[in-house]
Design a protein that fits this description.
- Strands 1-32-31-30 form a four-stranded antiparallel beta sheet, with no helix packed on it. A four-stranded antiparallel beta sheet has the order 2-3-4-5, with no helix packed on it. The chain has a four-stranded antiparallel beta sheet with strand order 6-7-8-9, with no helix packed on it.
- The chain is built from 41 helices and 63 strands.
- It is of the alpha+beta class.
- The two termini are about 100 Å apart.
- Strand 47 (about 500-505) and strand 48 (about 510-515) form a beta hairpin.
């Protein structure tokens, strides 16, 4: 708070003073003290008048209008009256021979009450000058008093009584108190009764009693006064004030301040309590206008907000005064000035609230910052701030481009801005009436006064032609009254009483536009250029007006009492403006280039803080003037989050998700597309991108819309927009965009106004809106009417409007477009049938010879039960099934028979067969039943009527018909063919019946064979028990096994007779594998080992047992034993197959393969390959393989001599003479020589006698592991020591770049050798013996080098 002036203590002799601010206007401060003078000060501390008294001032007070000041003094009974308007004074003799001690004016009338030392009273009417003395009102000094609105006077006296009197001084009531009453105040206290109501609002008078309690007397209930007492620690009451809705603020001497309520349910309750001052509190005051309270004490004054007394809004520190001397304070009625007095007579006046005066010009503001100071600042350049001292306190001000004006009443002072400004006013003007408002631009001032406007130059000669002009004038209605006006750089705009808005163009000095509204315009707010105008009419409706084309758009959702509107000063947001009242600010935008037409929409609402006056709107920030004269920024909710989008963290995005969503919608509405894009990315919602895309389309922002829809991934709309991007005609483009936005009526209007009106017709046709399309076709393109009529008819036909569809089909005939006319004739045919003209419709359909048309017409005829015509048309359309179906409905069986060869529907065949059967044409019926796949009926006809069981059996076997099988079974049972009967009973699922029949006729084995695996466990148990009863152990065990009775099954299987042991053991092994029970396993093993009957069984059974139990390691060992046995007796293929099968199973189970198995399989396979290559004349390959086998000849004991003989012959034949000699020498041993075949004996002996040990070195290839050279038939690398995979075709080791695998078993082979080996498509794989498709043999690029070797033990 700023100190305005102070009055030193010596002026009033260092004694307490009486002082009071003028009521209402607050222009004068009256101060009186011991110097026998009352000084009248103005608001700046200047003395404007004095009242000289014969004695010291003992009281003073202003009347309720602030026109008259009344003063009393100690020495006489004279009252001194000072007139504020004329600054004159007069004396009034009270007529009382007594010292005057108290005076008070009524706050509602010019009534003055004066009390005396002896308790007498004088009531004075200042208007009538009537004096009413009342003697003896009290017995002692009158201390305080007050009036209410009903002119009741309440007085408190030293005699400890309170009196209430009327205007004539008559006593209405008197109440005795315990202590002296002080500080009387009338106020309103709520009544406890809902039905009771007071005749006056101020129905309660309150007094401080002995400075300890507060006495409340309700005039509506005077018999029940209330006296409120307070805690002793608070101290004495130093003051109280009523405020709000029946609340009292009370201050106490110990520094406490409380609030109590007078509401009936809260009476006396402390709603608030605070230690306002540490040591002492001297007084309190309340400014209702300001909404504040103040307390004085501890050398300071504290100011509080009445809405929140916890909030200390300001502190005035008075360190310059003597401690403990602060006495009292008084606020002016307008709350602008607060005067504080000490008990030494010193006064301090502070400015607590400035008159809120401000104006703007573009981005520059002019604000009253002190009573005699204004400040000019630019919001874009805050450093350019200048303060100006004024010659007088202003009541209004205005800002222009180069000047500003201030003034009051009918005078105005113009000051210059800029570098050439002067210290004082540039020009002073005096007008013919009181100025309501001044508007400035660069050169002119427009002064609104007395419903007229005086337009004049600020500087220059006002007498020239363009120097000055009054409005209205003869060019307008001279008697019209101007209600509002505005001034831009180019235009003077004003609204008149007759609802006219006039535009006066300054450059041409003439009127250029006039618009007549429906009612009187009260306020107007143009943009900077004057080309857009917001105005408010007398109905509180707001409009946005375009003077160029007189377009008017209503502003939605305006506040009820709009104070003002401000256009955005940001060049990028010139279509945005705000409207505000005392509580809210609404943001609007005027959309111009928009598909749906120009409009004004409300974007957002922002709460306006109390006391804020908006001045400038720039880019989402509202610059407001506060009550203290400061400028503050108010961020609008419509622009929230636009400035700091890049600074948001993911956590903040989550917290402010709803606010960001609102910001996104606002950004779209405000055409802030860059911010909208960022917000859409932050929110990451598909619906937001779609909304942004539609908004851009609506505003014809093609390029941005394409980017958005590309971001979404909507290729269809992107392609559509790309096609539209080259359209130059804005109407066509807007129309296309309206179509995309589903605004079809707007689109039609835009197309019709464009260079392509036919596009409106195309749109209506695309939308299937045929009435509109026909109207457009008639006006735009009559030749299109037939085509539109046909399309319309198709839509009507679909909707079931047959009559109108027929009419439009007939209208669609062109007689020059055959395809189109045929389509119309088809429609005529259908609709004719629909409306009942069947003959016409059928004839047209037949004439057209169109299968589809015939089918459609037939369907319609069938629906209306015209079966004969329908069937005929179905037949002509080639739909024989439907034709036959309709013929059947018509009972025309002959027609059905004629077309039966074309029918495919089973249902029709069955219906026809039933008819043939009724007519006893059984062969035709059987054929029809069979064609209709009703096999039960076919079988029934063959058995019952045609007596042909052979055909019936055929049908049953082909179809597996259950019912048919039962019928056949019954037929055979009657013939005594029980085996066949049992077979067909099983097929018909009559197992129980079949069992009984088999049991009765000793056909159980046939039954068991027939039933197979498709039976229940109960069936199997029944069969097993039967075989148990007849002593057939094998069958008994077999069916107990199938029934899951594994123990019983094992018991009987091991009792099978010798001729059935082999089959029984196979079943027993399978049984053990399924049961997985150790007891059964041990039982079977004991049997196989001969421990039960002393006869060991073949090892193959043991092998099968291990395989069944999935004990692959034991099975592998057994397989090796079996293979050795087979190999020992020369059964090499059998041994090969056993080892290979076991090898594959071990690989599939990921079990380590015994090395012995690997070696044995490799040797046996090498020996088997010899015969293959000898037949193919690959003698060198055969020789190398025989060398490998001969080196392990002990593995082949049965054929030692033949193998060695073949090795010698093949080696000799292949040129391997050294190897041939070596093995020939082995044959010459005594144990082998006698067994040599005579055919080769001499040859071998010759090789030994004439040794030739020359032998070419075996070719080498790269090791697939380490690339070292390894002989082709060597299966171990000497360098890396890895066992090498071998080729199943040649026996050589594999090559990494010549690798293939058998498509069946997956074993490796050299691609070159294997593909040649199986080229004919019939030669099987050498190792798995399965035929290989040559096309499936492919080169493996990344082979598994250990694949078929597995993990070798």
């Amino acid at each position: 708070m700023k100190q305005i002036f102070n009055i030193p203590s010596h002026v009033y002799g260092n004694n307490p003073v009486y002082f009071s601010w003028q009521k209402k206007q607050g222009s004068y401060l009256a101060v009186g003290g011991v110097n026998r003078t009352v000084h009248i000060y103005d608001r700046h501390g200047e003395v404007v008048d004095d009242i000289t008294l014969p004695g010291n001032c003992s009281g003073l007070e202003w009347d309720f209008e602030g026109n008259t000041l009344a003063v009393i003094q100690e020495k006489s009974g004279v009252i001194y009256l000072w007139d504020a308007n004329s600054r004159s004074q007069k004396s009034l003799d009270s007529g009382l021979r007594d010292t005057l001690t108290y005076l008070c004016w009524s706050p509602f009338a010019p009534l003055l009450a004066i009390g005396t030392l002896k308790g007498n009273l004088l009531i004075y009417n200042h208007i009538t000058q009537k004096k009413t003395p009342v003697l003896g009102k009290h017995s002692k000094r009158i201390l305080s008093g007050c009036w209410n609105s009903n002119h009741i006077l309440a007085l408190g006296s030293e005699d400890r009584t309170v009196s209430c009197s009327n205007l004539e001084g008559d006593q209405l009531r008197s109440t005795n108190l315990r202590y002296e009453p002080e500080f009387a105040t009338f106020a309103e206290m709520k009544s406890s009764s809902e039905t009771s109501s007071s005749s006056v609002p101020d129905n309660t008078v309150s007094f401080m009693v002995g400075r300890k309690t507060l006495f409340l007397l309700n005039l509506d209930d005077p018999d029940n006064p209330i006296e409120l007492a307070f805690q002793a620690r608070y101290g004495n009451i130093v003051g109280y004030r009523w405020f709000g809705d029946g609340y009292i603020l009370i201050g106490f001497s110990n520094g406490f301040m409380i609030v109590v309520s007078t509401h009936p349910k809260e009476i006396g309750q402390e709603l608030f309590q605070s230690k306002a001052h540490k040591d002492v509190l001297n007084g309190i005051d309340v400014s209702i206008e300001l909404g504040s309270a103040a307390s004085i004490g501890d050398n300071c004054v504290k100011v509080y907000d009445l809405n929140d007394l916890q909030d200390t809004s300001a502190i005035i520190q008075l360190d310059q005064v003597e401690t403990g001397t602060l006495h009292k304070m008084n606020w002016s009625d307008d709350g602008q000035l607060l005067t504080i007095a000490t008990n030494k007579g010193e006064l301090f006046t502070y400015l607590t609230r400035l008159p809120i005066l401000g104006d703007t010009y573009r981005t520059t503001t002019l604000c009253l910052t002190s009573l005699l100071e204004v400040t000019v600042s630019d919001i874009l350049h805050p450093e350019n701030t200048t303060a100006f001292h004024l010659v007088s306190e202003p009541a209004f001000l205005a800002l222009g481009q180069h000047h500003f004006a201030v003034g009051m009443n009918n005078r105005a002072w113009f000051y210059c801005l800029g570098a050439n400004r002067r210290t004082g006013p540039l020009v002073e003007k005096e007008y013919l009436g009181t100025v309501n408002k001044i508007y400035l631009n660069g050169d002119y001032a427009a002064v609104l006064l007395n419903n007229k406007i005086q337009l004049h130059l600020i500087e220059g000669d006002a007498d020239n032609e363009r120097g000055s002009r009054m409005f209205p004038d003869k060019e307008t209605d001279a008697d019209d009254l101007i209600r509002c006006c505005a001034l831009t750089n180019d235009f003077l705009i004003f609204g008149t009483e007759n609802s006219n808005i006039h535009y006066f163009y300054l450059e041409d000095w003439r009127f250029v536009n006039e618009y007549r509204h429906t009612c009187r315009v009260e306020k107007m707010f143009p943009d900077t250029g004057g080309t857009k105008l917001v105005f408010i009419d007398e109905k509180s409706n707001g409009y946005c007006y375009n003077p160029v084309n007189d377009e008017l758009f209503k502003i939605p959702s305006l506040p009820n009492k709009v104070i003002g509107c401000i256009w955005d000063s940001n060049p990028n947001d010139r279509t945005v403006f705000v409207a505000y009242d005392e509580e809210v600010v609404l943001t609007y935008i005027q959309h111009r280039d928009i598909v749906s037409g120009e409009q004004v929409i409300c974007v957002g609402e922002t709460k306006l803080p109390y006391g804020y006056i908006p001045l400038i709107f720039y880019g989402g920030e509202l610059k407001c003037q506060t009550r203290s004269g400061k400028l503050v920024n108010l961020s609008l909710s419509s622009h929230a989050y636009f400035s700091n989008l890049n600074d948001l963290t993911p956590e903040e995005i989550y917290v402010y998700l709803q606010q960001l969503q609102e910001a996104f919608l606002n950004a779209c509405a405000l055409k802030r597309y860059q911010e909208a894009w960022k917000l859409a990315e932050l929110l990451n919602k598909q619906e937001n991108w779609l909304f942004l895309g539609k908004t851009l389309i609506n505003h014809l922002e093609i390029d941005l819309a394409i980017k958005v829809y590309r971001r979404i991934g909507d290729a269809a709309i992107v392609l559509s927009l790309l096609q539209l991007s080259n359209i130059e005609d804005r109407k066509v483009l807007a129309g296309e965009m309206a179509v995309l936005c589903d605004q079809y009526d707007d689109a039609q209007q835009l197309f019709l106004e464009s260079s392509k009106p036919y596009r409106a017709l195309d749109m209506r046709r695309d939308l299937l809106q045929w009435n509109q399309a026909l109207q457009l076709a008639k006006s735009l393109s009559p030749e299109q009417v037939p085509y539109v009529s046909k399309e319309y008819a198709q839509q009507l036909e679909f909707n079931g409007d047959w009559t109108n569809a027929l009419m439009n089909y007939e209208r669609g005939i062109t007689n020059n477009n055959m395809e189109h006319d045929n389509s119309c004739k088809g429609g005529i045919a259908r609709m004719s049938i629909r409306v009942g003209d069947i003959r016409r419709g059928v004839n047209i359909a037949i004439e057209q010879n169109n299968k589809t048309l015939c089918k459609d017409c037939a369907g319609i005829l069938e629906a209306i039960k015209q079966y004969s015509e329908a069937a005929t048309l179905y037949e002509r359309s080639g739909n024989y099934d439907k034709a036959a179906q309709v013929y059947i409905k018509a009972k025309n069986w002959n027609k059905v028979s004629d077309i039966l060869q074309h029918v495919t529907s089973s249902k029709i065949f069955i219906q026809y067969a039933k008819n043939r059967e009724l007519e006893k044409k059984y062969k035709e019926a059987a054929s029809a039943y069979e064609a209709g796949k009703d096999y039960d009926s076919v079988i029934r006809v063959y058995l019952d009527h045609l007596k042909d069981p052979k055909e019936a059996v055929r049908i049953v076997r082909e179809t597996q018909s259950v019912e048919g099988a039962r019928a056949v079974a019954n037929f055979f049972q009657k013939l005594g063919d029980y085996s066949s009967a049992i077979q067909f009973l099983v097929v018909s699922k009559c197992n129980e019946e079949a069992f009984k029949l088999a049991e009765e006729h000793n056909q159980m084995e046939q039954y068991a064979e027939i039933i197979g695996d498709d039976a229940t466990s109960e069936d199997y148990i029944a069969i097993a028990k039967y075989f148990e009863s007849v002593g057939k152990a094998l069958f008994c065990g077999k069916f107990f096994y199938k029934a899951g009775e594994y123990s019983k099954a094992m018991y009987y299987l091991l009792k099978a007779p010798p001729n059935e042991v082999e089959e029984a053991l196979d079943i027993a092994i399978e049984c053990v594998g399924v049961a997985q029970k150790d007891t059964l396993t041990h039982q079977l093993v004991d049997y196989l080992m001969g421990e039960i009957d002393g006869v060991p069984k073949a090892a193959g059974y043991l092998f099968n047992l291990y395989m069944s139990l999935k004990q692959y390691r034991e099975a592998a060992r057994t397989a090796i034993i079996i293979a050795k046995e087979d190999q020992a007796i020369g059964q090499y293929r059998k041994a090969h197959d056993v080892l290979f099968d076991m090898y594959q199973k071990l690989l599939s189970q990921n079990i380590k393969i015994p090395n012995e198995m690997v070696q044995n399989l490799m040797l046996i396979h090498s020996y088997i390959l010899v015969k293959v290559h000898v037949k193919r004349n690959n003698h060198l390959v055969a020789a190398r393989l025989l060398i490998r086998v001969a080196n392990n000849i002990s593995k082949f004991p049965t054929h030692v001599v033949p193998i060695l003989t073949s090795t010698v012959i093949e080696c000799y034949r292949s040129g391997l003479r050294g190897s041939a000699f070596s093995f020939a020498a082995m044959l010459m041993r005594p144990e082998y020589r006698s067994h040599i075949d005579e055919k080769w004996r001499k040859k071998i002996e010759q090789i030994v006698r004439k040794p030739d040990k020359t032998e070419p070195e075996e070719e080498s290839d790269n090791c697939p592991h380490c690339k070292s050279l390894v002989p082709q038939t060597s299966l171990e690398c000497g360098d890396c020591k890895n066992t090498l995979p071998y080729c199943i075709t040649t026996g050589r080791h594999m090559l990494i770049d010549d690798w293939t695998e058998c498509p069946n078993c997956g074993w490796p082979s050299l691609y070159s050798a294997f593909s040649e080996f199986v080229a004919d498509g019939e030669t099987p794989c050498p190792i798995c013996s399965m035929t290989v498709d040559p096309k499936k043999v492919t080169l493996v690029e990344t082979p598994n080098l250990f694949g078929k070797l597995g993990e070798i033990e």
